[in-house]
Amino acid sequence: MFGLMIVTPCTFIYLVTSCAGAAILDCLGMSEWVTDWRERNMATWYRNVSDHLRSPIYDVPGFIAGRTSLRRHVIRDLGDVGSKQLIHLQCHIGLDTLSWARRGAHVTGLDFSQQSIVAARWIAADSGFEVEFVVADVYEAARVLGRTFDIVYTGIAALCWLPDIARWANVVRDLLKPGGELYLFELHPIERMLEQRALGGLELKHDYFTPPEGCRDRRAVDNLAAAPDASVQWSHPLGEVVTALAAAGLRIEELRELDRSVLKRPAMEDAGYGMFRAAPGMPRLPLMYVLRARRS
Fold first, then answer.
1. DSSP conformational letter for 259
2. Hey, how many other C-beta atoms are within 10 angstroms of the C-beta on 62?
3. How many H helices and E strands in the chain?
4. 92 and 51 in contact (C-beta within 8 Å)?
5. Contact 262/67 with Cβ under 8 angstroms?
């Protein structure tokens, strides 16, 4: 048993990590998973889609009725997207993709899960939009699409499904027009270290760094319950992401860490606009980040 003491001006919080019990995220003994991570993750998303269509987190009926899935700061950052060509990588069931379409962008959504794309097309039809949704591996996006875009948009638990961030960065570069922008709104790797304690509260439990073979992850869509079968995921430190994009030739224009998240955890309060932050007296940690980069 290991402990971490976090001291704040208002309180002492003792977080305990125990080696007992079944791990929800496990980075040990992964060598046999190296060759079949894609198949395991594909099976995970095959099961997830029907759950997500019913989940209040996604709120598909509310979206079809007119709700946007975009957070306020994302809309403010990218501003007027009317007439711009936007590709949403790893779009899942397409809510953000369609939200950009509602704001006037010419959008394309891409995901490796056929079930996700079928759902996205259904939501688009019910929402009154004709949007291009493509089934393809993100690493093959530039080759499959064969054209470039003004904006590459991605994030909110997207990078954790990718083992090779350098390869991803090269795909982003190849998808961008000269002067085009990557907008990445993603969970902070520190957020992925947290896990709910059995008796309530949060513990700092998981490694910041992920081994190359990845980790078994049994966290469900709400990040608090255990999913029936494990996927394989990777936590990519900020330095790795920034370095990969710079090496691909993109100019980093902004890296902004946020003390709030789209995930609601214990001891967090509503921060408005679909975001949650630590309650007063709790330590403020970076939970998400925005990274903007541009192709010269």
1. S
2. 12
3. 8, 17
4. no
5. no
Are the beta carbons of 30 and 36 closer than 8 angstroms? Answer: no
Instruction: Please give the Cα distance from 250 to 179 (Å, whole number).
Output: 10
The span from the CA of 101 to the CA of 81, in Å, is 9
Contact 169, 248 (CB under 8 A): yes
Q: What is the CA radius of gyration of the chain?
A: 19
* Percentage helix, strand, coil for the chain under 3-state DSSP, each rounded to 5: 30, 30, 40
Please name the amino acid found at residue 210.
T
Rounded distance between C-alpha atoms, residue 247 and residue 181, angstroms = 16
Convert the pLDDT of each residue in 163-174 to its tens digit: 999 999 999 999
Q: What does DSSP say about strands 85-89 and 260-261: parallel, antiparallel, or unpaired?
A: unpaired
Angstrom CA distances, 232 to 138, 205, 265, 284, stand at 16, 18, 22, 29
pTM, to two decimals: 0.86
21's torsion region: left (phi>0), alpha (psi -120 to 50) or beta?
left
Q: With residue 199 as reference, give the H or E element that holds it.
A: none
Greatest C-alpha distance within the chain = 56
pLDDT of 198 higher than 90: no
Give pLDDT tens digits for 118-174: 999 999 999 999 999 999 999 999 999 999 999 999 999 999 999 999 999 999 999
What are the backbone angles phi and psi of residue 33, rounded to the nearest 5°? -95, -5
